[in-house]
Design a protein that fits this description.
By secondary structure, the protein is an alpha+beta fold. It has helices at residues 4-8, 33-38, 62-78, 109-112, 163-175, 179-182, 234-243, 249-262, 272-278, 284-291, and strands spanning 19-23, 26-31, 46-48, 53-55, 89-92, 102-105, 115-127, 130-138, 149-151, 153-156, 186-196, 201-212, 226-233. A hairpin with a 2-residue loop joins strand 7 (115-127) and strand 8.
Length: 292
């Protein structure tokens, strides 16, 4: 294996087997045919054809759409179609700054293939002019990627909160970082990726922050989602990323981004350009938009 394999792990090639999910004439997701079949009995909410699943045009505003889809999802939850219910809403939108077309239960986002958003924090320590990163190990109780290595802080971005306020909240919950320290975090980057799983399509844009921490600070998980923390040299992290799949997919990409910005992976690396491009353009649609 090599570092570029962390990009290949989440890159989708042919998307033709997926069914577009369209709201108000705009594609906002992609779903597997097996899940589309579960929507076939809800004709007042979803119109299903060979080329797309469309939310009914009779649902003309945010409130109507949110309520109608919520009713369908509750029924599918009772049927065991939607596991891991979170009671947390995600906005359905074409991009972060665009208006939300409606809100949807977080657990269903992957089934509809929505683009979701998350916040990630690289907590680093400067020791003897060398940076080290705090690496978390996810709890074995987590429903997604149990036991995998992760960034110091990571969390999904729900409705009703700003990115920075969400970061402050997640810092306290996941690593015991008080707001007085977390507020010094700097927004530094963003990555995107699409991963096909057995459940559906996970498409995410990650807001990335860096935070320098004092050598005396030791993170402590507060919500039970992290089993342990370790402070690692960057060369060790680079080796683990290149030789294993020990990191969760999103954490692998976020950490790669840190190593590229830090210079641990320099411009003479044979995959330098492909790594940078791969962190931000994960499918043909995005590349076409980028190329104009």
């Amino acid at each position: 294996m090599a570092l570029i394999d962390r990009i290949h792990d989440v890159r989708l090639g042919d998307l033709s087997h997926l069914i577009p999910f369209v709201v108000d004439g705009v594609r906002v997701g992609r779903m597997k045919p097996a899940f589309a079949a579960h929507l076939a009995g809800f004709d007042e909410v979803f119109h299903i054809s060979r080329d797309a699943v469309r939310l009914s045009d009779t649902l003309s505003n945010h409130t109507q759409r949110t309520a109608a889809v919520a009713g369908v999802l509750e029924t599918l939850r009772e049927r065991g179609v939607i596991p891991g219910w979170r009671d947390e809403l995600y906005p359905v939108t074409t991009e972060y700054q665009a208006r939300s077309l409606f809100d949807m239960e977080r657990a269903a986002a992957i089934l509809f293939g929505l683009r979701v958003y998350g916040i990630y924090l690289n907590g680093y320590v400067d020791q003897d002019n060398r940076q080290k990163l705090w690496i978390a190990r996810r709890s074995m109780e987590k429903s997604i990627n149990p036991g995998k290595l992760d960034t110091m802080v990571a969390g999904g971005h729900p409705v009703g909160i700003t990115v920075f306020d969400n970061l402050i909240k997640e810092c306290q919950e996941e690593a015991g970082i008080p707001a007085s320290i977390a507020r010094h975090a700097t927004p530094v980057s963003g990555i995107s990726y699409i991963q096909e799983t057995e459940t559906g399509i996970f498409e995410e844009f990650c807001f990335i922050f860096d935070l320098e921490l004092h050598q005396d600070f030791t993170p402590q998980n507060m919500d039970g989602e992290v089993a342990s923390f370790q402070l690692w040299d960057l060369d060790k992290i680079k080796q683990v990323l290149a030789e294993t799949r020990d990191f969760s997919y999103d954490a692998a990409l976020t950490t790669l981004d840190f190593l590229l910005r830090n210079g641990t992976i320099d411009a003479d690396h044979p995959d330098f350009q492909r790594l940078i491009m791969g962190l931000r353009y994960q499918d043909n649609d995005e590349m076409e938009r980028f190329n104009g």
